[in-house]
Amino acid sequence: MSTVENILAFNAQFVENRDYEQYRTTKFPDKKIAIVTCMDARLTELLPKALNLRNGDAKIIKNAGAIVTQPFGNIMRSILVAVYELGAEEVLVIGHHECGMTGLNSELVIQHMLERNISQETIRTLNNSGMHLERWLTGFDNVQESVERSVGIIKNHPLLPPGTPVHGMIIHPTTGKLDVVVDGYKQEVTA
């Protein structure tokens, strides 16, 4: 069986057995928080458990590195929707140690693309169109600085309601230990 066939077979049993009932909730986050975090597979179950979150407690927005790179990108739009339409009152940016975005080598990523049959012409065309793949595929050198930068972009966003607490944290991907980088109740952050 393929991966998708296994998923679908399990899903059929999940629905038939009504296992979904224990996860029923509304679209509004019970703890009124939105979390921006990394898509790292180690955090899938660890992060909610380490934060004492149950299904329905938070809006969790994931991407590579828990990075907010631009004030008018998809991540910021999701945060604003969570705040204005879904009842989130606080935002947490949670990066993690040992992140794959730390020291990401954009040239190596592009080399891997070429090895997987993306043409050099496609790469050249994107770069010539103003895409700047090398910059777009860049990670960060320091997770704390990355979290602080993302918190600053969110906190200083012209559409975020004034006074919205925006916190920055780093989680350990093995133990789940949280370290506060920015206390959104106390600090004013500038980007």
From TrEMBL:
The keyword Metal-binding applies. It holds the Pfam family Pro_CA. Keywords: Metal-binding, Zinc. Its EC number is 4.2.1.1. It comes from the Bacteria. Signal peptide: none annotated. Its cofactor is Zn(2+). InterPro entries: Carbonic_anhydrase (IPR001765), Carbonic_anhydrase_sf (IPR036874). It catalyses: hydrogencarbonate + H(+) = CO2 + H2O. Belongs to the beta-class carbonic anhydrase family. This is carbonic anhydrase. It comes from Paenibacillus glycinis.
